[in-house]
Specification:
Length: about 60
């Protein structure tokens, strides 16, 4: 419908897992994409991945 939104996300994959982290904020839905701190989102995604990753068989 012609509406643009800004919703940054990070994705990872390894031999047995894929994951996605998407950050949404109703107040920043129309933010300039170049104003998004992707480094901060990548660090958040890495922390989430570290917290949920479990070796196969556990």
């Amino acid at each position: 419908m012609g509406q643009k939104i800004t919703a940054p996300f990070c994705t990872w994959a390894d031999a047995s897992t894929t994951g996605n982290v998407m950050e949404t904020d109703a107040e920043r839905v129309d933010a300039d994409p170049f104003s998004v701190d992707l480094e901060a989102l990548a660090e958040k995604a890495d922390r989430i991945r570290s917290e949920i990753k479990v070796p196969i068989g556990q």
